[in-house]
Amino acid sequence: MTPADGKKGLGRGLSALLGTPGPAAAPEPQRAQRNVPVAKIRPGAFQPRRDFAPEALKELTESIREHGVLQPVLLRRDPNDPSGYELIAGERRWRAAQAAQLHEIPAVVKDLSDSEAMAAALVENLQRADLNAIEEANALKRLVDDLGYTQDRVAQAIGKSRPYVANALRLLEVDPRIQALVVDGSLSAAHARLTLSVKAPWSFAVEIVDKALSVRQVEKMMWAERHGHGEAAKKKLKRPPAGVTRDADTRAIERRLTDALGLKVELKPRKGGAGESCCITARSTSSTT
């Protein structure tokens, strides 16, 4: 959210979600941006993010220490403490400001009900596209289940299609162990959804990770299984050479490059062998699911 957004209201997508008046209607009165004591702010109850990467938070802390908080956080008055504030959006900035030992941060304070606060927190994070796939799915589910919104209405609010929302929600039907692989970057959301179509999802997911199979390879293997050619198909899918497996450190580097470039990044060894060199494969994140 930018300072200008604070003056306009809850944002175009969120206004559609909440059914608030459009541009032709009288503008909603809003409080101006102000500086709020960091100690007076508590984390919000509706934050969809669960994974605050330490390295990324450290980088943000250094940036804030040098330049300050450039984008205001979104707050409402704390329902349980009239002298305090509840954080609606901007928890990473608030945490980093604490680590940088700032006493105050810029904020926009709005009068929001519980349902409006939940919608604002979820949609703001969804529109920023910096949640992992499972966090995103849980956020969408809360909009549907807790606030009673249709998938069409949610899709309009976050600027996505209805099939996108439906596919994201399907991730929550996946084995929790497989969801954990998606969270740590071992498995893509597309891979995880494919496990819903097999009899032994967990062992299937482990095989995908172990052999570093692409979605295309998995789809071919599933087709072969259905048509009685399963063993022949598996023989063609060799394990990656020793030392080439994408470990947790490699996946962490990929995630950081993805965040920095705005592109899906994969680190792959060159054909010359592991340890000699690697190449970076990048593609637009807008095409991933």
Please give a structural write-up.
By secondary structure, the protein is of the alpha/beta class. It has three domains: 3-170, Conserved hypothetical protein from pyrococcus furiosus pfu- 392566-001, ParB domain (Alpha-Beta Complex); 174-235, no CATH class; 248-287, no CATH class. The protein is 48% helix and 14% strand. The chain contains 14 helices and seven strands. The chain has helices at 3-8, 12-18, 54-67, 91-99, 114-128, 133-145, 151-158, 162-170, 176-183, 189-194, 201-211, 215-226, 230-235, 248-261, and strands at residues 34-37, 41-42, 73-78, 81-89, 104-109, 263-269, 278-284. The strands form two sheets. It has a five-stranded mixed sheet. A two-stranded antiparallel sheet has the order 6-7. α2 (12-18) runs antiparallel to α5, α5 packs antiparallel against α6 (133-145) and α7 (151-158) crosses α8 (162-170).
